[in-house]
Each structure stands twice: as structure tokens, then as C-alpha cells.
Amino acid sequence: MRIEFLVGTALAALGAAPAFAQVEEIAPASEDAIVVTGQRAQLERSIAFKRDALGITDVAAADEIGQLPDRNVAEVIERLPGVGVQYDQGEGRYVAVRGVPSDLNSYTVNGFEIGNPDGNTRRLPLDVISGQLLNRVEVSKLKTADQEGQGIGATINLVTQTAFDFREPFSIQANVQAGYQELNDKVPVRGDVSVGGRFGVDQQFGLLLGGSYSRRDFQSFGLYPDDWALVAGAARDGLPINLKYTDYRLERERIGATGSFDWRPSDDHQFHIRGIYSRFTEDEYRQRYRLDFADGGQALIDSGALVLAPNGLAGTSTATAQRSDLRLEYKEKSVLAGMIGGTSRFGDWTIDYGAARIHNEVIEPNQLWQFRNVSPVGPVDFDFSEKMFTAMPRTAVGASNLQFRQYSEQDERGEEDIWAFRLDARRELGLGRDSFVRFGAKYRTTDKSFDVANEIYNRGSAANRFTLAGAGLAGPAAEVRVGNGRTYLIDPTIDADLIRAYTEGKLGSALFVRDAATSLVNATVSDLDLSEDVLAGYAVANLDFGTVAVTAGVRVEHTKLDIAGFQLAGAASVLPVAQKNDYTNVLPSLIVRITPANDVIVRAGYSRSLGRPSYASLSPGGQITPEGDEADVSLGNPALRPYVADSLDLVGEYYFAQGALLSLGAFAKFIKNPIFSATSQIGNGSIGGADYVRISVTQPQNGESADIVGLEAAYQQQFTFLPGLLSGLGVNLNLTLIDSTLRIPAAGEGTGRTTGFPEQSDLLWGAQLFYQKGPVEASLAYHHTGRALIAADADPLVDQYNDDLRRLDAKASFAVTDRITLFVEGQNLTDEPTRQYQGGRRDWVIQNERYGRTFWAGISAHF
């Protein structure tokens, strides 16, 4: 789908990428304060935020977060137009907005950049954060100059709760629930509570504390064919090299806390201290069986080792091997943010100020044992009649035929510390109802470290090799139920307790021989330490002439980077390296907001934003591999320039009834400096203190351009005009169509190619049917995320894609009293797997992972 006409439509826009207007904090508690009542209230509140925004922002309000069966922030905002989510083990994790990859978004909490606890990337794993303790989540798709320059896709702002968000001076809200999981009969639990109140003679003080907890023990089953290649005569034009199937068992725990203290001594002054903490842990157990049967493709057919049936759908291979492995992994990711600030009004002037301290951390140790057959596996029969094919050895491989091959012990650790400060001044102009000038400055300094160690131990000499049976390490068989009645058997398994005990004290012995060279590579090339300072200044003017309002602004950001890593030259020479870089970006914006009638708003806009490179791409570390008088070099590139996007937007919004909205818009993004991995040749050069006749350098480089165009539509309405019980019905629909062109330079000699943006789905749509009448509330929510490129290669046959993902969730509740509600939920009701494929061919499946359905029942109360 190519949406060429959208470019012309967007070019006709009069002004800037609209963004969410800052909400003035000075607002004493009143009848207009937030009241958590139900689905209708949350829809109306989200619409009110959207309508009052200077530009284009979608909002998930606190009521919505509680009413939909979502586990984390990623799944909450998936319901909004233009948002696509990548899932991990059945839970939403990374968010792409309007076809822009997740690492090019900006993530903030109460307006301060939150960073991320995800190692050496810039994308925030939103499954770390529970949505239950937030007031709202704002997704600003195109922004004014007073918002962060980072964020080509969007700025995703998490707004925490305060005691002034509720009508009652004292409130308690609590939610407790337990569930049932289809695949392993485990009982997940989760709950949250918040307690808040206003006190003092004039209720000028506010204090709110909240906490949340969830634990989910679950199981998933997956099939993972690898690396398809073209094979003549095969029904799908190719074969994978193997078939892997996996039994995953995981325990995920999420702990969250939030707090806010506010002091509002008068209508003109307010001060606050706020904080949020979230910790996500995961214990993972993975048994995997791998059967090699077509590793060699066409060459195997030519040799006679692989014979295809005449129809190309089935065959037999005698060039086979079996591998079995066990991985035990622990992950811990945490975010801790504290903020202090205030707002003061002096006549026509309003001063806003604040400071934040944020600490992010990731700890990820894991162990992996691998075994392989000693004697030949024998013939393997395979059948490609169905998309998820089968491959089975005629004779099962027993524990005595599985010999130890390798053990790895990985320990990844990362820390990030952020200090941020902001000062903002606004002056009312007295023109129209909302004319002002605003200018300000913001400073952020980030210190980030990432350390990787991965020790490798190989098998010993023939006399010191052991098998699963010989060492008594085999466990009972495990079933892998992939759906449609199909079951695979991992037999034997590797017993986790036995092999841990067996390995203890033997590392470095004749049984587990340390691979010093590989371990040194793993311990050096990915490590980094960096400091990144960003100083920003901006000015914005909003002129409201009644029917027409214009907002113009410019933001200037100066980024200073100091980054260090290690280069490994040869087998053992470790060279510390450090480089600096700095750049300045001028980011203008212009917004035109036309209100031809009270219920119609047309917004047109232009803005410029940027996307800083990932930390891994910026690291100067890497590996230098000499080969005589030549060298192959793989490095990061601290000199990378950020992505820069010029965005155009045009949208019309029709608020035709209370709680109702119909909107249609077009958008386009023209992106400079996209980043690719490129290889260049240097003649008669030096690197790592040595001279070479030829140096081949592979590192990230800036390319020329890319573009994204799309259409976005939304409709929501509450059918209160219908008679009787039907008046409780309502719908919420959204649709996004996106197309992109990413130009990839050639690797070495060649012409290059074009493809779509990673994480960009051509089609996103969602539909929610809800009901609220008397004590009964219910919702049925469906969301479709279209297939999307994961990673592009110079060879299109190696490209990897996420397939379509469709989720159907439901929730129903009954208010026993005006304070207590009982509810039930169902998640992933269609038992939808996540599926990936290769080479643009949906029948070249490289992952099919099943998670099953989950059901919940619980009780919520508010006082």
C-alpha cells in the first residue's frame, strides 16, 4: 500500500505539528476535579484533554487504565490511534507510534525524561511500569517547541496521581484480583491501593501514597525454525535449516509505588514533591530441542542427503543432528524517579520550575548448557503441508547419545543516573481568550554504564566428555503444545537442579574448559561508559484570535557526548578508547488551530524533532581481527548524527455530542540521517596501533533519507439516545494506515535497496464495544497490529518480520454498592500466538509462540 496522495495533503498544512498543551497546575479542588466513575467518565475526560490540546495528543485517562484488562502501560496506550506494540511472552513491551521505531520515541514522567533500564538502547520497556498508579498517559504525536526535541514518533508522558485529582478530600482506592492461566493452571495475582487526602484549614496540603503488586507464573510453547534459504523444488521455494521447539516457564513480578506531596498556600502558588518507583523481575526456565535436517539446503539435495517428494511438501534428510539446551535466566529492571517543583503566578506572569533525579538499573545473569548427539541421529522425515511444518527423527535420541558441548555464564549489568532541571516563564498577552508567550530552558545530564561478561566453557578432551545419561543429568519428558492439537515432546530434558549442582566447582576443569579468547571478546566489545548532556532553550507564542489560533515556536538543543569503551585487537590486546561528540539542533514549530464552530476543530502543523542514536551504535568499542597485512574491523560510531524529522500534520475533529468524537487526519514525516550498518575499505591505514595494507571497517553510518506517510481516523460515541437498556452502549473505533520508504545503502559494492521502517505496521485498527448502565459495566476490546519489519539486511531474503497480531480481551463488572465492585476479565480470548517470518514470506515462519488464555476475577473498592 502506497499512500502517495498523503504527501500532497500534508504539504497543504498551514502550520506546526500540534502538541499537548501544558495543563496548569493551579486549580483548586472543585466540582470539576477528576472523579473516577466509569467508562463514560474516562472517555469524556480523554476527549477533553485532546480537545484542549494545542496540537495532536491522545490521552489514556486513569479511569480507562482501570477499566480495560491491560497489564502495563504499553497495553494501555495500544488502544490509542496510531500505536503499535511489540509483545514479549504475551505482554506488551515496546511501543511504535505512527510507524516510528520505539527507540526514536521520547519517554517522560511528569515532563522529565525518564531514560530506561534496558541496557544500551533508548527504548523504554513499558512493561516495567504498572499503569494502575498513574493519573493518565499522554501520547503527543507532534509537539510544540516547549516539549522535548527527542521523539520522532511521539513523546509518551506518564503523569502520576496527586491528592488534588479527586473530588473528595480523603479517598482510598483498592483493587485485588486472582486469575487462571490456561497452559499451566497457575494462579496469577495482582493488586493496587492508593490512599490520598487534602488537609489544612483550606485543604492547602495534599498527600497521596500508592502501591501495586503483580505476580504471574506462566508457561508458553514455541516453535522456532531458523534461517530459510531458497531451495529448488521445495513447495515454499525454500527450506529452513532446522526446527526448534521450546518449553518456557516464567515467573514475572512487578512492584510499583508512587507518592505525591502538594502544598498550595494560595491560588497563585503551589509546590510539590513527587516520586515513582517500579521494579520488574523475571525468572525464566527454558528447555529447547533443536533438530538440524536441512542445514546446507540445495547442496544437501545435490548430494542426495536430502530427498524431496515430487510435490515438494515432504521429504527425508539423513544429514541430521540434534541439540538440546537449558537456559536459566534472571532479569531485574527498575526505575526510580523523584521530582520537586512548583508554579508561581505574579500578575500576568507564571513561573514554572522543577528538578528531577532518576536512577535506572538492569541486572541480567543467565546460564546456558548445550548438549549434542554423539552418534548420528539417523533419517528425519519432514512435512510442509501446513504452515507450521513437522520434522521428526525416525529413532528418538536418548540421554546416552546427548553429549555436553558448551556452557556459558552471562552477567549483564547497567546503571543510568539522570539529573534534570527546568525553568519556564509564561506571560498572558490579553489577546483573545488564551494568548501568551512562553520561554524557558531545560538541562539534562545523564551518566550511563553497561557491562557485559559472558564466560564460555567448552567440552574437554575425549576422555573427559560426559553425556546426560552418564552424569545422571536427564529429566522427565516435557510436552510442547503448540496449538491445533499438535504436541511435540522434549525427551529427555536437562534437569535444572542436577546440572547446576554438577557444574558447581568444575568450571575451568578438564570437564569445562574455558574458552579464553571468546570470553575476552564477550567481556569487552559491548561495554560502555558515557555522559550525555543536553541543554535546551525555547520560545513559544500562542496568539488566539477566536476562530483562528496560531502557535509558533523554536527550540534549540545542544547535545554533548563523552563515551568510552574497549576495542579488542587480535586475540588478547584490549585497548581503552574514548571519544567525544557534540551537535546543535534548531527545532522550529508552527501550529494553526481553526475552530469554525464550537464542535469542530481543524489543526494543521509543522514541526521538527530528532532521534538520538542508540548507545550501542555510539560506542567506540568493537573488535579488530587481523589477517596478515589486512584487518576486519567492527566498531560503533560516536560521530553519528541524530535522526532529524520534518513532520507535517492535518487533522479535523468533530465533537458532535457529549463523550463523542469523529476525527480524520493525514501525516507525513521526512527523515534525514537514518542509521545503517555499512562497510568501507581503507587502504594503507592504521588502527589499534598497527599498520595494514587494507582495513575493512563495518560500523553504523548515517544514510540519506526516509519518509513515512499515513492516515489516522477515530470514532467514539456513547449511545445515550437509545431507549431503555440500549442507552448504556457505546463504541470506540480507530484506524491507522501507514506507508514508509527507508533507503538502505549498499553493503560494499552494490546499488542498495529500499524497504519499510522497522516496527512500522501498514495497518493498525482497534474496536471496543462497551456498556454502562446502572451497576453493570462491560467492555469487549479487539486490537489488530499489522505485520512489521523487525530488522532489514542488505539481502531481502534475510529480513525478519513480526506477523499480524490480533488480541481480543473482555471485562465485566457489577457494582454491589456505590463503593464496592466485583469484576471478571479475559485476556487473549482467541489464544493468539506471536508469529515471525523471514524474507517477506509469511510461510517462512521463524517463530510461533503460544501463551494461552488468562482469566481474572477480583474486587475493587473506593472510599
UniProtKB/TrEMBL annotation:
<protein>
    <submittedName>
        <fullName>TonB-dependent receptor</fullName>
    </submittedName>
</protein>
<keyword id="KW-0472">Membrane</keyword>
<feature type="domain" description="TonB-dependent receptor-like beta-barrel">
    <location>
        <begin position="399"/>
        <end position="829"/>
    </location>
</feature>
<dbReference type="InterPro" id="IPR010104">
    <property type="entry name" value="TonB_rcpt_bac"/>
</dbReference>
<keyword id="KW-0813">Transport</keyword>
<dbReference type="InterPro" id="IPR012910">
    <property type="entry name" value="Plug_dom"/>
</dbReference>
<comment type="similarity">
    <text>Belongs to the TonB-dependent receptor family.</text>
</comment>
<keyword id="KW-0798">TonB box</keyword>
<feature type="signal peptide">
    <location>
        <begin position="1"/>
        <end position="21"/>
    </location>
</feature>
<dbReference type="InterPro" id="IPR039426">
    <property type="entry name" value="TonB-dep_rcpt-like"/>
</dbReference>
<dbReference type="Pfam" id="PF00593">
    <property type="entry name" value="TonB_dep_Rec_b-barrel"/>
</dbReference>
<feature type="domain" description="TonB-dependent receptor plug">
    <location>
        <begin position="51"/>
        <end position="153"/>
    </location>
</feature>
<dbReference type="GO" id="GO:0009279">
    <property type="term" value="C:cell outer membrane"/>
</dbReference>
<dbReference type="Pfam" id="PF07715">
    <property type="entry name" value="Plug"/>
</dbReference>
<keyword id="KW-0732">Signal</keyword>
<dbReference type="InterPro" id="IPR000531">
    <property type="entry name" value="Beta-barrel_TonB"/>
</dbReference>
<keyword id="KW-0998">Cell outer membrane</keyword>
<keyword id="KW-1134">Transmembrane beta strand</keyword>
<keyword id="KW-0675">Receptor</keyword>
<dbReference type="InterPro" id="IPR037066">
    <property type="entry name" value="Plug_dom_sf"/>
</dbReference>
<dbReference type="InterPro" id="IPR036942">
    <property type="entry name" value="Beta-barrel_TonB_sf"/>
</dbReference>
<keyword id="KW-0812">Transmembrane</keyword>
